[in-house]
Write the structure tokens for this entry.
Amino acid sequence: VARAGAVLRRFERRSTRSILRLGDVTLDVTSRVASVSDEPITLRLKEFDLLAALLENVNIALTRERLLEMVWGYDFYGDTRTVDVHIARLRDKIKGSALEIETVWGIGYKLVQT
């Protein structure tokens, strides 16, 4: 019952927008295509979902636990440091764009436009 509830909550929270755009970063959620300055970039499944979650919550500090819940789901039993690894990969892939993933010490991460 708890797992079913978690799936329903994630489904309800999904963005109804099919295109997420901020600065020069664009995510087409429907076709799962990401681009920086109109150049396509290759993102893994969870990297894409993590970037989408950050784009939907621009300038909002999100805890690692909240990001795990949003991207991996309640039933994820791994370490919260998984988020750190994926954030590091995302930072490399969006380097040179107008966006930056900032570390909010003691809390987590937030996406800001520079």
Summary: The first strand starts at residue 19 and ends at 22. The chain has a mean pLDDT of 88. DSSP finds four helices and seven strands in the chain. The radius of gyration is 14 Å.
